[in-house]
Design goal:
The structure is a single chain. This protein is mostly beta strands. The protein is built from 1 helix and 11 strands; from the N terminus they run βββββββββαββ. The protein starts with a strand and ends with a strand.
Length: about 130
Amino acid sequence: QVQMVESERGSVQAGGSLRLSCAASEHFNETMCLGWFRQTPEKEREEVAAIWKGGQRKYYIDSLKGRSTISQDKDKNTVYLVMTNLKAEVTAVYYCAVDRTNSAFECYVLVTRAALGAWGPGTQVTVSS
């Protein structure tokens, strides 16, 4: 099973930007659905962004639309999440995850259910006001 490892924890002041990265143990292929999720002690794990088929389809949570970008680098087997104009409420543990899907819709369903097959251990993101 593919293994995912997120970048080290990040801390930033409110209004700043942060880039998270997640490296996979296998080469990306066109069936891969890659997602970023976050979780706090008060809330269940929720999807943040997802990318399918090398970027043919992308998905963002409403609260981060226009302030986040998900991308992937096939040569480095790495998926990125850039978040800008950060607010304190995005403080959470962020996870990346991957699964193989046959369609953008299947990817969307798995992402919205936080049901992708392989997960990284998570990394803490802290935004201070």
